[in-house]
């Protein structure tokens, strides 16, 4: 396995979209074309499946130096109401595009730190949206909570509004690692908030663990996993730390790169961590995610309904996802759009009555074809080709996969690619073979984190 790590540990996308953001063609994009794609997608899908909403709540009281999200660090909670008013105004701009009342299937609050906001202000935001939509049957509402500031009132308020899934960022319980990433939170706080959520009635509790952090060792990682098992979350995200300090605004400079585990050490953290999780009853779903059998993420995998978008893996597959808030990304299936990345500019543009997108990509027929294959690989670990869904470089792609076949990472059949259990850790590498935009225009500088 070590020789495979040396061979395949290269920079590569996580494929929450195709094309990936660095390969968006902004020359063909405009706010008007974006709105046209939203209208088309809504008219095709709202009645049958509904829509998804992602709300980016960017404020945090302290900077976690491992975080690559767009955020604003402040202790001034006076920012809450003006920001939420802007989010509701942005939503009303989308409502003007819809021909009927939206059916809301999926809603996720991300950040930043959603629980930075007071329970009452979150209620005001959500009720402002709910009064304009029809709530779909079997909806999935979820939020990300910081264990240190998620209160019983937060949990009860969101539960009363229909939320049943809560995700808590754990990362690692080792004090040395926590100090390096500026994320000090004892196990007792995670235990407290997890137990309160269960007591209230949440049926989906997720914990996020990260491997590859500074000073992280297998001994510490094993301790973190075993402590996590004491709480038995329904779902786990077991993420590879993406070290991208060159990206503007990320702030990943709180430690020396020499403090990070080597590629070989990092892969061991994943392999041994995965083995331990499976021994403890968790099943790997897609890439980086594990769940218990009863969780709907695993059930969607079995039913071949697993989906992946900018929110990560989801059991709800909606064609239209509207992203609200600064830096939020929206997906109409036919196009992507990202909002401006500062709070001030976001609020200014919304006040002017404009949807605050700053860049995006209109997918052509080839993009849509490749997107489907990469989604199949990321979600089902296989994809099938026929005369209607091939492309000119397909023969070259199969040729590149032969090396992976020799390494037992994939199985190549006449018109099908299957990722093996051994190859699951290299899913991103397999998907890269079909990334036509990257293959045709390979980056001259590093723009992605390492695949391993």
TrEMBL record:
InterPro entries: Coprogen_oxidase_HemN, Coproporphyrinogen-III_oxidase, Elp3/MiaA/NifB-like_rSAM, rSAM, rSAM_horseshoe, rSAM_sf. Binds 1 [4Fe-4S] cluster. The cluster is coordinated with 3 cysteines and an exchangeable S-adenosyl-L-methionine. S-adenosyl-L-methionine 2 binds at residues 66-68, 112-113, 171, 183, 208, 242. Residues 45-279 form the Radical SAM core domain. Pfam families: Radical_SAM (PF04055). It is found in: Cytoplasm. Its EC number is 1.3.98.3. GO terms for molecular function: 4 iron, 4 sulfur cluster binding; coproporphyrinogen dehydrogenase activity; coproporphyrinogen oxidase activity; metal ion binding. Monomer. This is Coproporphyrinogen-III oxidase.
């Amino acid at each position: 396995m070590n020789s495979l790590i040396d061979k395949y540990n290269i920079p590569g996308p996580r494929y929450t979209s195709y094309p990936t953001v660095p390969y968006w063609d902004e020359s063909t994009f405009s706010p008007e074309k974006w709105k046209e794609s939203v209208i088309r997608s809504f008219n095709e899908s709202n009645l049958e499946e509904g829509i998804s909403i992602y709300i980016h709540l960017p404020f945090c009281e302290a900077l976690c130096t491992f975080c690559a999200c767009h955020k604003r660090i402040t202790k001034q909670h006076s920012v809450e109401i003006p920001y939420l008013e802007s989010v509701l105004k942005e939503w009303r701009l989308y409502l003007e595009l819809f021909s009927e009342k939206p059916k809301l299937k999926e809603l996720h609050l991300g950040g930043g730190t959603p629980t930075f906001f007071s329970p009452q202000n979150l209620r005001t935001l959500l009720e402002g949206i709910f009064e304009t939509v029809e709530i779909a049957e079997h909806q999935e509402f979820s939020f990300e909570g910081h264990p240190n500031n998620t209160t019983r009132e937060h949990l009860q308020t969101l539960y009363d509004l229909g939320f049943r899934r809560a995700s808590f960022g754990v990362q690692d319980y080792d004090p040395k690692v926590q100090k390096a990433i500026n994320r000090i939170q004892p196990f007792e706080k995670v235990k407290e908030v997890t137990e309160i959520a269960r007591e209230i009635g949440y049926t989906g509790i997720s914990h996020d663990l990260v491997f590859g952090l500074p000073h992280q060792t297998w001994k510490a990682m094993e301790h973190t996993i075993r402590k996590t098992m004491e709480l038995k979350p329904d779902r786990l995200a077991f993420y590879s730390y993406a070290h991208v300090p060159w990206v503007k605004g990320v702030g990943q400079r709180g430690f020396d790169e020499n403090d990070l585990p080597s590629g070989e050490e990092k892969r061991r953290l994943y392999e041994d961590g995965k083995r331990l999780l499976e021994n403890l009853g968790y099943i790997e779903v897609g890439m980086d995610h594990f769940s218990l059998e009863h969780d709907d993420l695993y059930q969607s995998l079995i039913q071949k309904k697993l989906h992946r978008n900018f929110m990560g893996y989801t059991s709800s597959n909606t064609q239209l996802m509207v992203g609200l808030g600064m830096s939020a990304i929206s997906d109409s299936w036919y196009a992507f759009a990202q909002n401006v990345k500062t709070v001030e500019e976001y609020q200014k543009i919304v006040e002017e009555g404009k949807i605050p997108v700053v860049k995006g990509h209109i997918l052509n027929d080839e993009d849509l074809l490749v997107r489907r294959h990469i989604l199949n690989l990321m979600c089902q670990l296989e994809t099938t080709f026929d005369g209607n869904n091939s492309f000119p470089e397909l023969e070259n792609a199969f040729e590149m996969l032969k090396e992976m076949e020799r390494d037992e990472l994939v199985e190549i059949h006449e018109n099908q690619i299957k990722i093996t259990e051994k190859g699951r850790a290299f899913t991103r590498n397999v998907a890269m073979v079909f990334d036509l935009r990257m293959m045709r225009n390979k980056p001259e500088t590093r723009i992605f984190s390492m695949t391993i």
